[in-house]
């Protein structure tokens, strides 16, 4: 039967060869019909034409009113009237371009979801649904052109329906032929595009004409009066039936959408930005147009026929099968939905579960538009009649996938479709289709629009997803629940979905819900802190990016999201809170056995559930029930990690209490009591490492939890002090290393949080806030006092006991002590009684100014407080003026003791020791920067004109610069009171400085410590010499000399000093000598004693640092050379030079008989170096040194001694020319005269040799000595008793020959004496 009908339809294709004849026949029929009409028929046709014109011009005709009334009958939605009027008003400005599917890029479509030509955006769908003229601006002329022929607009479809549809099929054939050509001929792409586009346009124009003709000219069925009808009326009466047959034939001709060749379906993938499209693209979109316009035409026919059933009489008579307008609409609609789902299945095959929500189900926007058109049309029709809605048809189609019927019953179109996972596909397609309900009839997004739900079908899907027998994997279950959560955002929530899911998850709480291929992201997430647990639960209660949940959460958390959304939305909408309806189902799943069977993962899931519920529902009721359920667990059956998780869960509930501003005392006491017991166990457990680790796991959980409570509590007015019980007094002494560090860090956070909140509330009270704003701070104040009291009582005693520990304390100890100091400043009344009445000063004395406290602790402690303005104001208000001086003293000590904890040996430091040293150096640098900001210090630096770059220097150098600045400032003072006050202040800066360095001296190391000690204190002696010269400071000076320079070990000559100590003294000795020499010049009462001290120091160290043999000039320089050659004042230099040479003369240049002293060459080299570097000869040099040097020239034969001695004589002779007539020249002559008298008799030749050298240097000097030399010559001859010594006289004459006239005269005199003596003889 079906084959016969198809044969009849295909026979019409022979018309392609009979077009000219058809046109002539058409003209004849038209003419006969016009002539045969009666006048009344003509008048009636005229009235209908006028009425349609009135409707197109917006006049409220009777037909329009009837349409509106019918529309109201179909739907109770009032806006239809408004929309109808709007559409009528838009007629004049309407777009005459006919609607069609188009996904081509259009620059005018910016911001739109669909093309302006689309059925949605153009208003085509809306006009059809509102029973308005489908194309009010089109087909208004008497003649219309279709398929290249002219037709009478108002009669063409009645007279030539079969013929026109034949032409339509012929055009479709032409387009199919172009597709075949286009696949092989790329050179004609543009021409093919134009021709294909023209063909498609003709087809669409015809179908739109059909729709318009039905609306304008098709009359509803009339009751027959006389049984006689005009031939045209007979044709017109048969038109609805003929249209049904032709539309059916058209659908059979084009076939199913999913059955199109793959080459045509591939056109979906063409980029929308293209300008030229292949024929396949046009053919594909023409199919879409035809499928949709068939539905529109059938709908318009039904509306025009008063929703009466139109039978395809000819088809029924021929085939015996029933074909009506309604059955054709339903069949075609069902087939179209099946085809669209088939296309979606092909697209779903390539979709990963993780990408399900971001991967659309439509290959192009035209398919998306077609889905929306079906939704709008089907749901519109279902409102006015009992026809199936959109979801009903979709559900039927999806059920076919699940049921997989036999080949005889299989739904057409699914023979080639294979869906491997129909359940996941159903979730995917339902979710994406639900999102399309957000589009209105114009294609605009309208998220507030009421959306039809499909919960019944979704509930069936949920049951299949959670059915244990189905074995749905987690990777798919996550996607299913993502879809469910998305649907919850589209539809009103229902309780059944939550019940189905809870039945599943309550049985699988111990599951990890992991996806293996996700790696670490898929692992079960055990929260490490209570805050993390709470944040996880809170994330379920807030809007999230659902597509990201696949990797960030497991299916259980997505279920919690669904449950939380149900709670929140239902509660916001009023009525009975959903918690009251569901809590019985949730509670009933937990009992003793279920609780005891829970693993750690199960407990985590348990807490996640109830934390989320506590956030959105009755907090106290839920927490109370959770505590009762946890009581079912026995401690012996739980692991340590489970116990820690339970403690974290408790704290997470505490955090909820805090966020909701609820008192936590009951829950806090329960937790703190458990903490006290574990802290007691921890204290007595010392050697059992495993037990300690287990206990610390719980204790650290408690500490983290308390810290989080304090951090998020807004006013600390909810009994937070209950958490700070005496368990900490047992915990702190038992902590080691990292454990103690964690507790102290926690304590710092609590101290800072308390001070911050207390200060903020105090400011609020001072600003005079009233009413409700003021009540809370007043109530919170008592809680703050309680927290402060708990901190002082349970933490501070341990802190105090650790300040003088045997090993350097951790930095956190200093930080915490600073926190307690500031707490004493803010809340002084709650400090311990031993710190009263001024707890701030007591704290500073304990941790900042006590000389026995570790310097590492002091430096870090003071760095927190030096620049605290409130603390400075407090000291000022107390009248405590020594605050800055004591702080500077501590700074002195911290720098001097920076190496106090290093080993005394010379072994290489470990990396850990280097790290500690570096950290302490950074701390000292920061402390130095802060110290230099103190007003007192700034004043000193400004008076001394010290640049700011000093602040950035190494702390040791900065300290030296400060010492220099103090010295310069003192030197600039004029009055005695100012100087006296300055001396007192500097002594206060120093304190007992020798006490600071005593550990170095006692241990004789480390080398760095000794070098630092001698250098810094040497700088004090040198630059504070004017201060140390005063009576107030001399005792300190004497102690410095006794302890550092002349200790008992130094006085023991037979005992060698340690190398490190000797090296430190050698580097710094010039500072001490220069300072002491200045003091010797200044002191009036202790001058003799100071000179003695200076001499003793020189005596002890000259020989220790003297080389065994002379060295090259400048290499291995003696420290006393540096002292003598520095730029110091003349009196100071002379005092030091005289004392040094006196010591050298007395102790290092005394001959034992004719035997020279040891290391004579080195001593002489020292003297020579001093003369060379100073480039001056002083009187003391001649008095103390010259005679001995001349003696060396006579008595010592060592070449090196002779060479150095000659150089010394040369420097002295040249330095004080005899001809200058000065005191030094006179003294020089005197020394030479004595030298001649002492040694000429025995060492005449050597004496004359020395004098010859001197004559070369200073002729005047030797000339003045002629009488002395002559007399010495005569005395020598007399003593020998041998008469004149001719050889000696000859040597003397040679000397005299260098002395010009005076020498010649003396020679003459000697010769005369010789001649007279010979004559006498």
From TrEMBL:
<keyword id="KW-0156">Chromatin regulator</keyword>
<dbReference type="GO" id="GO:0031297">
    <property type="term" value="P:replication fork processing"/>
</dbReference>
<comment type="similarity">
    <text>Belongs to the MMS22 family. MMS22L subfamily.</text>
</comment>
<feature type="compositionally biased region" description="Basic and acidic residues">
    <location>
        <begin position="27"/>
        <end position="58"/>
    </location>
</feature>
<dbReference type="InterPro" id="IPR029424">
    <property type="entry name" value="MMS22L_C"/>
</dbReference>
<dbReference type="Pfam" id="PF14910">
    <property type="entry name" value="MMS22L_N"/>
</dbReference>
<keyword id="KW-0227">DNA damage</keyword>
<keyword id="KW-0234">DNA repair</keyword>
<comment type="function">
    <text>Component of the MMS22L-TONSL complex, a complex that promotes homologous recombination-mediated repair of double-strand breaks (DSBs) at stalled or collapsed replication forks. The MMS22L-TONSL complex is required to maintain genome integrity during DNA replication. It mediates the assembly of RAD51 filaments on single-stranded DNA (ssDNA): the MMS22L-TONSL complex is recruited to DSBs following histone replacement by histone chaperones and eviction of the replication protein A complex (RPA/RP-A) from DSBs.</text>
</comment>
<feature type="region of interest" description="Disordered">
    <location>
        <begin position="27"/>
        <end position="65"/>
    </location>
</feature>
<dbReference type="GO" id="GO:0006325">
    <property type="term" value="P:chromatin organization"/>
</dbReference>
<dbReference type="GO" id="GO:0000724">
    <property type="term" value="P:double-strand break repair via homologous recombination"/>
</dbReference>
<protein>
    <recommendedName>
        <fullName>Protein MMS22-like</fullName>
    </recommendedName>
</protein>
<keyword id="KW-0539">Nucleus</keyword>
<dbReference type="InterPro" id="IPR029425">
    <property type="entry name" value="MMS22L_N"/>
</dbReference>
<dbReference type="GO" id="GO:0043596">
    <property type="term" value="C:nuclear replication fork"/>
</dbReference>
<feature type="domain" description="MMS22-like C-terminal">
    <location>
        <begin position="922"/>
        <end position="1299"/>
    </location>
</feature>
<feature type="domain" description="Protein MMS22-like N-terminal">
    <location>
        <begin position="99"/>
        <end position="805"/>
    </location>
</feature>
<dbReference type="InterPro" id="IPR042320">
    <property type="entry name" value="MMS22-like"/>
</dbReference>
<keyword id="KW-0158">Chromosome</keyword>
<dbReference type="Pfam" id="PF14911">
    <property type="entry name" value="MMS22L_C"/>
</dbReference>
């Amino acid at each position: 039967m079906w084959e016969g009908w198809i044969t009849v339809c295909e026979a019409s294709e022979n018309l392609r060869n009979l077009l000219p004849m058809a046109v002539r026949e058409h003209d004849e029929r038209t003419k006969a019909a016009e002539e045969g009409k009666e006048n009344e028929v003509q008048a009636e046709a005229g009235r209908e034409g006028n009425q349609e014109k009135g409707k197109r011009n917006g006049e409220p005709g009777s037909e329009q009113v009837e349409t509106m009334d019918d529309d109201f009958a179909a739907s109770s939605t009032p806006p239809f009237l408004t929309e109808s009027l709007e559409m009528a008003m838009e007629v004049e400005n309407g777009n005459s371009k006919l609607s069609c599917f188009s996904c081509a890029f259009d620059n005018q479509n910016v911001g739109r979801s669909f093309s302006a030509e689309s059925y949605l955006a153009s208003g085509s769908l809306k006009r059809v649904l509102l029973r308005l003229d489908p194309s009010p601006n089109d087909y208004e002329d008497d003649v219309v052109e279709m398929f290249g022929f002219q037709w009478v607009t108002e009669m063409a479809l009645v007279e030539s329906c079969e013929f026109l549809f034949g032409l339509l099929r012929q055009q479709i054939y032409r387009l199919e032929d172009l597709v075949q050509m286009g696949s092989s001929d790329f050179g004609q792409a543009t021409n093919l595009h134009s021709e294909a586009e023209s063909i498609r346009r003709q087809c669409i124009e015809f179908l739109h004409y059909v729709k318009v003709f039905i609306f304008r000219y098709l009359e509803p069925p009339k009751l027959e009066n006389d049984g006689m009808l005009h031939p045209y009326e007979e044709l017109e009466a048969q038109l609805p039936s003929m249209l049904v047959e032709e539309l059916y034939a058209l659908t059979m001709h084009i076939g199913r959408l999913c059955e199109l060749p793959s080459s045509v379906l591939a056109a979906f993938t063409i980029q929308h930005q293209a300008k030229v499209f292949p024929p396949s693209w046009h053919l594909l979109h023409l199919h879409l147009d035809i499928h949709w316009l068939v539905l529109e035409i059938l709908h318009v026919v039904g509306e025009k026929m008063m929703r009466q059933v139109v039978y395809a009489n000819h088809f029924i008579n021929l085939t015996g099968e029933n074909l009506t307008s309604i059955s054709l609409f339903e069949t075609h609609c069902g087939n179209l939905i099946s085809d669209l789902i088939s296309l979606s299945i092909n697209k779903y095959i390539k979709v990963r579960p993780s990408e399900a929500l971001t991967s659309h189900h439509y290959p192009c926007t035209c398919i998306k538009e077609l889905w929306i058109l079906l939704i709008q049309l089907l749901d519109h029709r279902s409102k006015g009649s009992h026809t199936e809605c959109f979801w009903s048809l979709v559900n039927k189609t999806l059920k076919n996938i699940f049921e997989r019927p036999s080949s005889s019953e299989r739904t057409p179109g699914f023979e080639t479709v294979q869906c491997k996972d129909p359940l996941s596909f159903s979730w995917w397609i339902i979710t994406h289709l639900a999102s399309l309900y957000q589009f209105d009839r114009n294609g605009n997004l309208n998220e507030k629009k009421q959306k039809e739900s499909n919960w019944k079908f979704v509930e069936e899907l949920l049951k299949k997803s959670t059915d244990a027998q189905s074995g749905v994997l987690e990777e798919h279950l996550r996607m299913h629940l993502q879809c469910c959560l998305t649907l919850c955002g589209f539809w009103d929530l229902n309780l059944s979905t939550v019940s189905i899911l809870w039945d599943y998850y309550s049985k699988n709480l111990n599951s990890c819900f992991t996806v293996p291929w996700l790696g670490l992201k898929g692992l079960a997430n055990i929260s490490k802190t209570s805050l993390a647990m709470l944040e996880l639960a809170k994330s379920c209660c807030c809007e999230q990016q659902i597509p990201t949940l696949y990797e960030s959460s497991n299916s259980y958390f997505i279920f919690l999201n669904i449950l939380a959304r149900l709670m929140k939305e239902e509660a916001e909408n009023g009525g009975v809170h959903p918690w009251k309806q569901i809590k019985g189902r949730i509670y009933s799943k937990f009992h003793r056995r279920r609780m005891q069977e829970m693993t750690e993962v199960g407990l985590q899931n348990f807490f996640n559930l109830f934390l989320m519920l506590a956030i959105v529902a009755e907090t106290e009721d839920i927490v109370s029930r959770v505590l009762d359920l946890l009581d079912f667990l026995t401690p012996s059956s739980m692991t340590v990690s489970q116990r820690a998780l339970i403690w974290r869960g408790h704290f997470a509930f505490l955090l909820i209490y805090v966020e909701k501003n609820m008192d936590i005392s009951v829950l806090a006491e329960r937790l703190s009591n458990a903490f006290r017991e574990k802290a007691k166990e921890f204290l007595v457990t010392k050697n059992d490492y495993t037990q300690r680790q287990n206990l610390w796991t719980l204790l650290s959980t408690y500490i983290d939890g308390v810290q989080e409570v304090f951090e998020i509590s807004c006013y600390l007015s909810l009994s937070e002090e209950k958490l700070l019980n005496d368990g900490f007094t047992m915990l702190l002494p038992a902590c080691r290393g990292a454990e103690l560090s964690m507790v102290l860090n926690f304590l710092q956070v609590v101290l800072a949080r308390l001070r911050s909140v207390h200060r903020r509330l105090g400011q609020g009270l001072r600003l005079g806030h009233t009413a409700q704003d003021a009540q809370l701070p007043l109530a919170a104040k008592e809680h703050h006092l309680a927290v402060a009291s708990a901190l002082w009582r349970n933490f501070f005693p341990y802190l105090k006991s650790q300040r003088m520990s045997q090993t350097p304390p951790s930095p956190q100890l200093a930080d915490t002590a600073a926190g307690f100091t500031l707490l004493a400043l803010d809340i002084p009344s709650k400090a311990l009684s031993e710190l009263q009445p001024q707890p701030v000063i007591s704290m500073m004395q304990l941790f900042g100014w006590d000389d026995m406290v570790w310097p590492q602790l002091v430096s870090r402690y003071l760095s927190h407080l030096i620049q605290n303005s409130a603390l400075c104001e407090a000291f000022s208000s107390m009248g405590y003026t020594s605050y800055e001086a004591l702080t500077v003293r501590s700074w002195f000590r911290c720098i001097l003791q920076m190496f106090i904890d290093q080993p005394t040996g010379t072994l290489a430091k470990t990396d850990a020791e280097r790290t500690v040293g570096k950290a302490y150096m950074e701390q000292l640098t920061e402390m130095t920067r802060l110290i230099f900001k103190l007003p007192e210090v700034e004043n000193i630096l400004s008076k001394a004109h010290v640049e700011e770059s000093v602040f950035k220097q190494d702390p040791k150098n900065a300290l030296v610069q400060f010492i220099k600045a103090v010295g310069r400032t003192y030197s600039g003072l004029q009055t005695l009171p100012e100087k006296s006050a300055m001396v007192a202040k500097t002594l206060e800066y120093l304190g007992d400085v020798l006490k600071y360095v005593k550990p170095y001296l006692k241990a004789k190391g480390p080398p760095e410590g000794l070098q630092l000690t001698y250098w810094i204190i040497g700088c004090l002696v040198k630059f504070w010499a004017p201060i140390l010269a005063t009576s107030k400071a001399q005792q300190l000076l004497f102690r410095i000399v006794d302890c550092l320079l002349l200790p008992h070990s130094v006085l023991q000559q037979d005992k060698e000093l340690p190398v490190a100590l000797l090296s430190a003294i050698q580097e710094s000795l010039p500072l001490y000598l220069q300072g002491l020499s200045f003091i010797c010049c200044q002191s009036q009462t202790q001058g003799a004693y100071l000179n003695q001290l200076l001499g003793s120091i020189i005596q002890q160290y000259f020989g220790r640092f003297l080389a065994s043999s002379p060295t090259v000039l400048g290499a291995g320089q003696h420290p006393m050379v540096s002292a003598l050659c520095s730029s110091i004042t003349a009196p100071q230099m002379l005092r030091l030079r005289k004392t040094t040479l006196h010591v050298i003369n007395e102790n290092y240049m005394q001959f034992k008989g004719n035997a020279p002293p040891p290391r004579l060459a080195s001593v002489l080299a020292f003297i020579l170096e001093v003369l060379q570097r100073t480039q001056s000869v002083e009187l003391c040099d001649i008095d103390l040194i010259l005679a001995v040097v001349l003696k060396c020239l006579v008595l010592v034969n060592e070449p090196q001694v002779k060479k150095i001695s000659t150089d010394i004589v040369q420097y002295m002779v040249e330095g004080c020319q005899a001809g200058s007539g000065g005191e030094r020249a006179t003294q020089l002559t005197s020394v030479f005269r004595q030298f001649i008298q002492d040694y000429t008799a025995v060492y005449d030749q050597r004496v004359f040799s020395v004098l010859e050298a001197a004559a070369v240097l200073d002729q005047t000097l030797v000339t003045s000595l002629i009488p002395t030399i002559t007399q010495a010559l005569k005395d020598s001859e007399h003593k020998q008793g041998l008469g004149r010594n001719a050889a000696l006289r000859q040597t003397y004459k040679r000397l005299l020959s260098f002395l010009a006239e005076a020498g010649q005269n003396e020679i003459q005199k000697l010769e005369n004496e010789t001649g007279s003596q010979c004559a006498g003889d």
